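Researcher: Here's the sequence for the chain we discussed earlier.
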Amino acid sequence: MEIERKFLIKELPENLSQYAFHTLEQGYLNTDPVVRVRREDDDYYLTYKGKGFLAREEYNLPLNAEAYAHLIEKADGNIIRKKRYLIPIEGSGLTIELDVFDAPFSPLILAEVEFESVERAQTFVPPEWFGEDVTENREYSNSYLSKKAIL
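Model: Thanks. This is the structure I predict for it:
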């Protein structure tokens, strides 16, 4: 089960270079239900996600580079590329996953925080530098972005 909240970010934190990050590339084989392939640095996954926004089923299966290369060619729509910074929230045990999108979606920046329970997600008070909560707004889901027309 994936339980997460998602927020728009207007400005990057000044100290971003001090945090670890991953380089992500992902494509969608289907968006209802979500079936995605992802490269995260040198790791590869096939992911199934159920319906919902705040909480939903999620299953990740490992792939090898050859299988990923084969499947990403079959992805519909836009391939999404982004850099994901991992920023710990001091004293909470939580981590902000700060996604800085590459073109054609830049300057989009989203922060996601994953939780162990729906209750903890609902009582989470975001840091001051977070913008609008877009957890329930499908237009900020990666599967929606994969289908978005690019001008």
